[in-house]
Amino acid sequence: MAKELFIISGDKRIAAVIVGRDLDNIRRLILNNLTKFKIYNTELDVVIDKVK
Asked: 4-15 pLDDT, tens per residue?
């Protein structure tokens, strides 16, 4: 599931790098796992390309 986890400043306090087969798989991973920890307000950003 999560490959990396970052604690950050600002409104969003945690950032996780999650790898899945497709967007639906990632959505299921988020819904099935993060809600266990009562994390409901999430934002999904998709990486299009890696610069380096």
From this structure: 878 888 776 778
